[in-house]
C-alpha cells in the first residue's frame, strides 16, 4: 500500500508512520510536512535509511506537490494542522491557512484523482460539555479559533462527500499524550518543567476536564479506520479517561517524586472550554477497536521517554 501522510513530522503523524512501518514494512510512506510549529525531524530519525519512507518538505497548500504525488497513492491521512489552542487565540490566521485552506487544497486533489482521505479531527469541534459525551451526529459548537478551523474543515469535507461522492472518513479524537509531543502542550510541559524544578503554570482553578488517550491507541484506531472504515462516515475516538487538569498534574508530579509546590495558578485562558467528552461506542462496535494503554502505563511510558531524552 502507498500512503501519503501529511503533517508526519508532528507528534501523532510521526507515531502513526512508525507504527505502520513497524507492522507493514513493505508499505511505502510519503510524508509531506512544512516543518512548522510542532514538527521535529528527530521524531523520524530512525527511518533515515528506510527505503520505504520518503519525506518532502512542503506546505499542503502547494497543489503542484500534491498533484505530483497523489495520483500514485492509495490513501492520504491528513494530520497537518496548526494544533495549539493558545497560539490560535493570539494569532488565528495560520490556523485558517493550514487547517481550512490546506484541507481545501487536499480535497481538490483527491476530487481530481478519486483517492481515499482520512481527516484527523478533534473532540474540540463539539465545544464544552457540562455532562454526557458527544456522539458522531451531534452538532458543532467550537469555541476557540483552533476548534472553529477544524470544524470548518469538517463542514467543507462533508460537502465534498455529498456533492462529489468522495471516499473520505473523518476521525475525532480526545487529548493525546505520549512520546514525541511538542513541549508546549500540557503533559510534556508538566514533565519537562518538573525535571527542571520549574514552576508549572495552571490556568484558572485547574478544574477544567480533559479526556486523555495514549497516542499509540489513537494511531491503532486510525489503522482500523484506514483498513475497515466505511466511506463517508465519521468516528469518535476516546479512551474515556476524564481528569481535571489539576488531577493529572498531581498524578505526574507524584510519579516523578516532585513536590506539588511546583504548581502555579495563572489567569484563565480566554474562552477556556470546561470539559470535552466523546462517546466512542461506534468505532468500538463497528470496527472492533478498543484502547489498550491505561493512564498509569501511558504516563509511565511518556515520563520515561522524556527522562531518557534529557539524559541523551
Ligand atoms: P503537531 O502540532 O504535533 O503536528 C502538526 C504537524 O503538521 C507539524 O509537523 C507541522 O509542521 C505540520 N503542518 C502544519 N501546517 C502545515 C501545512 N500547512 N502544510 C504541511 N504541514 C503542516 O500536531 P499533533 O498533535 O500531531 O496533531 C495532529 C493532528 O491531530 C492535527 O490535525 C490535530 O488537529 C489532530 N488532533 C490532535 C490532538 C492532540 O491531542 N494532539 C487531538 C485530536 C486531534
What characteristics describe this protein?
about 300 residues, alpha/beta, 7-stranded parallel beta sheet, 3-stranded mixed beta sheet, 12 strands, about 40% helix, binds nicotinamide-adenine-dinucleotide
Please describe what this structure looks like.
The protein is of the alpha/beta class and 312 residues long. Helices cover 40% and strands 18% of the residues. Strand 1, helix 1 (11-23) and strand 2 form a beta-alpha-beta unit. The longest helix has 21 residues, at 93-113. The two termini are 35 Å apart. The mean pLDDT is 97. Residues 6-7, 9-13, 33-36, 38-39, 59-61, 79-83, 98, 102, 120, 122, 150, 173, 175-176, 182 line the site of nicotinamide-adenine-dinucleotide.
Compute the CA-based radius of gyration: 19 Å
Number of helices: 10
Strand order of the largest sheet: 3-2-1-4-5-6-10
Mean pLDDT: 97
Estimate what percentage of residues fall within beta strands.
Answer: 15-25%
Structural class: alpha/beta
For the largest beta-sheet, the strand count, sense and barrel status come to:
7 strands, parallel
Helix content: 40-55%
Shape call: globular
Compute the number of strand runs: 12
What ligands are attached or bound here? nicotinamide-adenine-dinucleotide
Q: Cα distance, first to last residue?
A: 35 Å
Low-confidence stretches: none
Give the helices and strands as they follow along the chain: EHEEHEHHEHEEHEEHEEHEHH
Amino acid at each position: 500500500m502507498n500512503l501519503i501522510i501529511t503533517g508526519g513530522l508532528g507528534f501523532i503523524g510521526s507515531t502513526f508512520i512508525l507504527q505502520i512501518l513497524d507492522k507493514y514494512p513493505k508499505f511505502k510512506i510519503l510524508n509531506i510536512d512544512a516543518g512548522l510549529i510542532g514538527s521535529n525531524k528527530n521524531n523520524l530519525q530512525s527511518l533515515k535509511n528506510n527505503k520505504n519512507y520518503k519525506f518532502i518538505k512542503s506546505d499542503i497548500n502547494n497543489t503542484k506537490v500534491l498533484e505530483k504525488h497523489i495520483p500514485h497513492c492509495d490513501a492520504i491521512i491528513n494530520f497537518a494542522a496548526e494544533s495549539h489552542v493558545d497560539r490560535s487565540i493570539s494569532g488565528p490566521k495560520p490556523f485558517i491557512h493550514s487547517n481550512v485552506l490546506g484541507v481545501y487544497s487536499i480535497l481538490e486533489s483527491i476530487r481530481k484523482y478519486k483517492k481515499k482521505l482520512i481527516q484527523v479531527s478533534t473532540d474540540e469541534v463539539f465545544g464544552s460539555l457540562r455532562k454526557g459525551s458527544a456522539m458522531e451526529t451531534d452538532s458543532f459548537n467550537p469555541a476557540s479559533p483552533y476548534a472553529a478551523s477544524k470544524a470548518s474543515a469538517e463542514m467543507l469535507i462533508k460537502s465534498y462527500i455529498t456533492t462529489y461522492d468522495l471516499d473520505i472518513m473523518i476521525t475525532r479524537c480526545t487529548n493525546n499524550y505520549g512520546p514525541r509531543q511538542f513541549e508546549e502542550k500540557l503533559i510534556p510541559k508538566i514533565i519537562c518543567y518538573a525535571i527542571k524544578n520549574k514552576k508549572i503554570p495552571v490556568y484558572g482553578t485547574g478544574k477544567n476536564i480533559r479526556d486523555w488517550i495514549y497516542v499509540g491507541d489513537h494511531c491503532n484506531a486510525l489503522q482500523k479506520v484506514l483498513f475497515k472504515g466505511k466511506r463517508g462516515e465519521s468516528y469518535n475516538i476516546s479512551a474515556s479517561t476524564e481528569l481535571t487538569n489539576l488531577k493529572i498534574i498531581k498524578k505526574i508530579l507524584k510519579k516523578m517524586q516532585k513536590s506539588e509546590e511546583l504548581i502555579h495558578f495563572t489567569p484563565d485562558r480566554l474562552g477556556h472550554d470546561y470539559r470535552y467528552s466523546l462517546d466512542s461506542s461506534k468505532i468500538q462496535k463497528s470496527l472492533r477497536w478498543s484502547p489498550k494503554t491505561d493512564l498509569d502505563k501511558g504516563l509511565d511510558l511518556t515520563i520515561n521517554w522524556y527522562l531518557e531524552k534529557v539524559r541523551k
